[in-house]
Give the backbone structure.
Amino acid sequence: MGLDAYNVLYADAKKWLEQGWVDYIAPQLYWRIDQTKQSYPALLQWWTSINPQHRHIYAGNTLARLDGKAWKRTEIDKQVRISRSLFNNLSWGNIFFDVDAIVDNRQAIADKLRNTLYNQPALVPTMSWQNNVTPSPPTNIKVNNRKLGWDAAKTPDIRSWALYRQSRDTWQLHRVLSRGTNFATVRPGTYAVSAVDRMANESLGTVISVV
């Protein structure tokens, strides 16, 4: 059975989203795709349709029910792909509950997340209504024996560094490094390093070749 948050919890999340009072919303869509009364895709489509202020929507998915019977790993795989199919409607990610299923690798879910669904690094989406000022790019970038290095962050707004690798005419995000890490060991190629602040705004990249 579903719970009416408005009448039971006195929480009007629909209005919060419509008014833009939240930066993102994470509806708990703990239902299977084939459930007619609470269908995962139908619920997610509804949330994306009542978002006039264009806030981020991160669907909440349950891993706690994974039992290999009613709830199988393939269900989670399909739900994530449905979420991604609504990318243009600001369905920009998934939040999983609870972590025990991942730690225990129940139904090999940790392997699926690591090797297939989330096998590429990604930056958090920006929130332009909060702040869209780009930080300064990294400075003094250099290479020594295939080890890239750059100056440590000098301002408190820097949250991480993004390392890109050039592949023909495109740039691919290679790693996301924490603020306290200002080096990376890499293979030969052309790289760019950018600074990312706490609001996910990204600086221009500083390019360097590694031979």
